[in-house]
Structure formats: C-alpha cells, structure tokens
Structure to design on (255 residues):
C-alpha cells in the first residue's frame, strides 16, 4: 500500500491524551483530532463540559474516554495515564494543554496565585509527561502547549503566566533530549492570541487593538490554524522534529 504525504498526517488507531479539553483551545483540539482516526482520552476539571464534549465526539464516530483530572496533582496525572491504558491499551500521543491565565501586577501577585499558575501550567506538564511516557512506544509524540509569551515580553503584567510558559519551552527541550533514545519526540506549541475563554476575559478593546498594531497579520488567530500546527507535531509528518518550539502567532514575535 502506497503512503502519500497526506497519509503522514493521519493518526489512525493511535491513542491521544488531551488535557484541558473541556473548553477553549483544548476542546477545539479534541474536535480536530476526532477526525484523524485517533482514539481520544480527554481530561479536564469540569466534568459536565467534558461529558458533553465526549458525547458530541462519540456521536460523530470517535472513540472517546473522558477522565476528570487536575494536572497540578501528580496522582491525578498517574490515574489519567492508567485510565488511558486500561481503556485503549497504550498511549501514542499527549497534548499537554491544561492551563490557567494570570494578569496581575508583579508587586500585587500573591504567593498562592503565583504558585497556582506554575503548578498547572508548568508542573502539570511535567507530571503528565512523566506519567504518560512509560506507556508510550517508539514513535510517540508529546506536544506541550506553551505561548508566544514564552518568547517575548508580555504587553500586560503577566509575570506568573510568562514564567510558566517560558518554563514549558525549556522543559520540552530537556525531555526531548532525555527521551529521544525511547523514540519519543517532545515539542512545544506556542500560540499567539486566539479567540478563547482566556482572551474573551480581557476587558474592552485593549487586547484586540494591541494584536492589530503589533502582529504582522493584524488579527486574532482562528482555531483551525492552530489545529493544523498541532496535528503536524503529533503526527508522523513531523517525524524529524523534536526539541523545538513552533510559534503560531501571526508574526507577533517577529517585531
């Protein structure tokens, strides 16, 4: 059977775990991956939204297993990985997407607030990757969702968020080096500003105006534009790509 270039982007019979899947970019990722032939294990803290999404994708013919989990808890990450293996036998890909936002002046940031952002956005990426890798075979792929703010200075006060996302990029490089001998690739996906719950929470026109003025494409990104980058990093199409970060930011970081 001849394999075409487009076949390299398929995920048939592969088990993909997606964290932070109950809403926003994570729910979009789940919907996109459901059409690639993958089996999905969806995780998030909000059980009702997770259940609704699972029913939606199952109705479309995708094999889905939903697990309520807080990635800041290493035990919950271990449970999520074991549930994926119990249901589907193995893990082939991991999308570390769970994250929380923060926009607090550094002088007003509390220890609890700073720790919570780091616990979810950075520590959670590590706990989940550590839990998943023992169940991954050669050819596995981990995509850690970072941010353009891991590369450039934020335009708003976001010390905790920026620190966590820069940390994800460094962590991804290290894990890629450590796990290359296992045949597992690790990369960071760095979105710019996309329509999501996080950006919708911004008040007024300040954020859209900043994006218009300081990005080359002068607009927010569309979910499908980020989905395509995620699929590239997860699939065999990126078989020679590891230890890097892929910016999908409309040129914001180039200025």
């Amino acid at each position: 059977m001849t394999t075409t270039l487009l076949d390299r982007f398929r995920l048939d019979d592969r088990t993909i775990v997606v964290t932070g899947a109950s809403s926003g970019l994570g729910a979009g990722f789940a919907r996109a991956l459901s059409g690639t032939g993958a089996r999905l294990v969806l995780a998030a803290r909000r059980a009702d939204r997770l259940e609704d999404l699972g029913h939606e994708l199952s109705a479309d013919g995708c094999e889905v297993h939903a697990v309520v989990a807080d990635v800041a808890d290493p035990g919950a990450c271990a449970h999520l990985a074991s549930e994926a293996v119990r249901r589907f036998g193995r893990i082939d890909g991991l999308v570390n997407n769970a994250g929380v936002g923060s926009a607090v002046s550094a002088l007003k940031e509390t220890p609890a607030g700073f720790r919570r952002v780091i616990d979810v956005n950075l520590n959670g990426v590590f706990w989940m990757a550590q839990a998943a890798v023992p169940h991954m075979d050669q050819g596995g792929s981990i995509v850690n969702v970072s941010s353009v703010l891991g590369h450039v200075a934020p335009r708003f006060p976001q010390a905790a968020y920026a620190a966590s996302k820069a940390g994800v990029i460094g962590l991804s490089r290290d894990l890629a080096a450590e796990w290359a001998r296992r045949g597992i690739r690790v990369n960071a996906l760095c979105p710019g500003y996309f329509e999501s719950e996080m950006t919708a929470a911004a008040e007024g026109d300040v954020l859209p105006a900043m994006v218009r003025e300081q990005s080359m494409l002068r607009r927010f990104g569309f979910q499908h534009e980020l989905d395509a980058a995620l699929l590239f990093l997860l699939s065999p199409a990126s078989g020679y790509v590891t230890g890097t970060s892929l910016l999908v930011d409309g040129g914001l970081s180039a200025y």
